[in-house]
Write a structure and sequence with these properties.
This protein has 2 domains: 2-93 and 183-223, ATPase, nucleotide binding domain (Nucleotidyltransferase, domain 5, 2-Layer Sandwich), CATH 3.30.420; 95-176, 2-Layer Sandwich (Nucleotidyltransferase, domain 5), CATH 3.30.420. It has 8 helices and 10 strands. It has helices spanning 34-49, 68-85, 94-104, 142-149, 160-164, 166-171, 184-196, 216-223, and strands spanning 2-6, 11-18, 21-29, 58-62, 88-92, 111-118, 121-127, 138-140, 156-158, 175-176. The strands form 2 sheets. A 5-stranded mixed β-sheet has the order 3-2-1-4-5, with helices on both faces. A hairpin with a 2-residue loop joins β6 (111-118) and β7. The longest helix has 18 residues, at 68-85. The termini are far apart.
């Protein structure tokens, strides 16, 4: 049984599932309340499924890229649970979760998963088809990314960044799908398929979030 923790964007999401698919899940608008919302969300999902923490055999965690505060909350919670339960953590990137959702829905063309990084920037990864990205996620400006993606006809954009800068991408002739936030249910599905293929979760102390940029507080301090 897998417990999925999703805090990379504005959403606080938790899902519980196994090899047969999701058993229960909940989404909450976290914004800057990830710390307050996550623990009650976990309790709620376990209660929905009639399960307890003792039933959890692995933690599926979105490690980013995404918003610094949300990632810190998700990573710290996953590490604490994994350490206490003696289970591993399956690390999944936010861009993989976003891309997987549209591919699971039947889309077969190129996809760009675009996460809002704030400060007029985005985190993005391109996919030529289901599977791993064509290159690791990078930090970019919406305009620069739109110029690069315009050279790949038929590319479908997903994610919070794609929606925030929809007009920029539309001006470049690019389409934006309805998928906005990484789904905790898809997160669990990816982790379950990786475990079934022989992958193993990492120990709690080995979890490494994908930040791609320093925290806003540090940036402001350096500027001052």
């Amino acid at each position: 049984m897998l417990l999925g923790i999703e805090t990379a964007a504005g959403l606080v999401g938790v899902a519980l599932g196994d090899g047969g698919g999701p058993l229960a899940g909940v989404w909450l608008r976290g914004e800057r309340r990830h710390a307050e919302a996550l623990a009650p969300a976990i309790d709620h999902v376990l209660a929905q499924a009639g399960a307890s923490l003792a039933d959890v055999e692995a933690i599926a965690l979105d490690v980013g890229p995404g918003l610094f505060t949300g990632l810190r909350v998700g990573v710290a919670t996953a590490q604490g649970l994994a350490e206490g339960l003696g289970v591993g953590v399956v690390e999944v990137t936010s861009v993989d979760v976003l891309a997987r959702e549209v591919y699971d829905a039947g889309f077969e063309g190129p996809v760009a998963a675009v996460v809002d990084a704030r400060r007029t920037e985005v985190f993005a990864a391109r996919y030529g088809g289901p599977g791993t990205p064509s290159e690791p996620a990078v930090r970019d400006t919406p305009a620069a990314l739109a110029g690069k993606l315009a050279e790949l006809p038929g590319t479908l954009l997903v994610g919070t960044g794609a929606h925030r800068y929809r007009t920029v991408f539309a001006d470049a002739g690019l389409r934006v799908a309805a998928v906005r936030e990484p789904s905790p249910a898809v997160l669990v599905s990816i982790a379950a398929s990786r475990l079934a293929a022989g992958a193993r979760g990492v120990p709690a102390g080995s979890v490494r979030p994908v930040y791609l940029r320093a925290a806003d507080a540090r940036i402001n301090w350096v500027r001052r």
